[in-house]
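User: Show me a protein chain along with its predicted structure.
Assistant: Here is one chain, sequence first, then structure tokens.
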Amino acid sequence: MSEEKKKPDNKRTVDPAALQVLERNDGKIETAYDRYVNMQPQCNFGRTGICCRICLQGPCRITKKASKGICGAHSYTIVARNLVRAITGGAGAHADHGRHIIYTLIEMLEGKTLDYSIEDPDKLRRVAQNIGLSVEGKEERELLKEVLEIAVSDFTKLSGEPCRWLEATVTGGRMNKFTDCNIQPRSVNTTIAESMGQTHMGVDADPVNLVFQGLKTALADYIGMHIATDLSDVLFGTPKPVTSEANLGVIDPEMVNIALHGHNPLLSEMVVRAAREMEAEAEAAGAKGIKCMGICCTGNEVLMRQGVPLVTNFLSQELPIMTGALDAMVVDVQCIMPAIRAVAECYHTRIITTMSHSKIPGSYHVEFTEDRAMEKAREIIYLAIEAYKERLPDRIDIPQVKNKVTAGFSTEALLDIFAAVNPDNPIKVLTDAIDSGQLRGVVLLAGCNNLRVLHDQSHASVIKGLAANNVFLVATGCVAGTAAKLGLMNDEAVEKYAGEGLKAFIHMLNEANAGKLNEKLPLVFHMGSCVDNSRAYDLNTLMANEWGVDTPKVPYAASAPEAMSEKAVAIGTWCVTLGMPTHVGVTPEITGSALVDGVALQIAHDVYGGYFIWEEDPEKSVDVILAALDERTWKLRVHRQAKERYETEAISAGW
């Protein structure tokens, strides 16, 4: 690689640990940072969404010379179809996760797997009651069977009654809106199939009709995600506050180091359990023990429930291998770069794939099966121990960068913390702080990493800017990974970055929970993996119900400063449909059609109350998010005053 290409490579992240690895590497081993530079310039047709590859006559690109595709499709049709297919891809990925959880629980009930059990019967009862089941006099397994029947129905039914998980987790106002707009999903799988058929060549050319199908598909994505989160909690336990560490410095040169990467907790939970049982085998190989660590959302899952440290997030997933001390990277599904195998060829690291539909050529493959889960986990540990024996000590160079992390904030955990202040109505602690002006509102930070912006910088800048302006912050996915790596997810960050209102609010919670929590509360509250954005939305619904309004009136926004995947497109779309202002820090591929872009930015607000905000500048992003929160807080206050003054029964129905 030439000198001029090395320089931008080393500057495409603000993570100090990642920078150390990249600077030491000096371009010798190709990484995502190099490939991004080599890819420039990228195709502007694809960037704006006006390239169609749906049939074999194309690709068709919209230009001044060719204003329509070969079939006659306008730019607005092409952009809308591409958008719907992206949403559908994201929904399909989340559905894959949810189906696997359902399947494993069914196998457990049928006695086909002995390694899993109901870890959280209280969560099982809460879920059952929430979806309308009676829990009185029912044993756990009987109740779980009934819950799973509804979960399977919400995934597969063809009839038109509302999906139970959607109806149970959103406001009545949202359900009425979905009925009025005819976007209620029949089921997760059915809606995904509908969208693929509707976007086939020669089917739907109406951009508005296509966008509405995209919204329906996004709601199907929300349903699948919520089912996955709820049932994972039943299976592995609902997260509670836990303290750990994050960044490359968690790698221990004296231990067998195993990175767990992907999005599915079914295997990773077992690997963590097996690692704790196999310390003697590691010691026999000369190590002091076994250390598991996480990458991406599998990492978030085991951090939240087991306190496993987080080594990095999506974009820098190759770099733990380049420390020379990672013995195995165990991958399941989603956001796994095929490039990790090429990097591992330069080291002793074993890349171990585990799912039949997610393989990388040249990797080790340990086929995960639910009926032999622990056996497979032990097989993986043995491969890591064998790799440890092949280490080259002179190649080990671990950046000594890591930060304390306090995570594990499920909705239940947050409510438990609020209950120390108001045991009768915990959510009122949060809404009262907004009513009084102590807090500006709540922002859900979600999404991936994307090299179109500087790695981790947009995440960190938006977090610091919102915190300084007294916004209560919850986070999921790789933005939570950024906060963890860069020291923004602990109590020290509160003192350093929080505005006076937010600082006073967190101090109040700390005092009320004195003796109850092992660590003081962080600046950013980690709510879990990407799929757990559904639990973050539950907080929004609780706030809306407390105020007696629909969610478009709640000062709660979403922000994806470094969005990347189709899953992020799907999540952002249901955030809008469920009534949230949704900032995206990487402009998506729809700007080639002013009509479709206008629907996302403007028309969506008129119909659903939520809307997208495209803004790539982190400082400007903070300003537009704050403006969205302030508008809602002001309207909420005015509408409440009008209600009290004129003694009406309800706050204004308009946004």
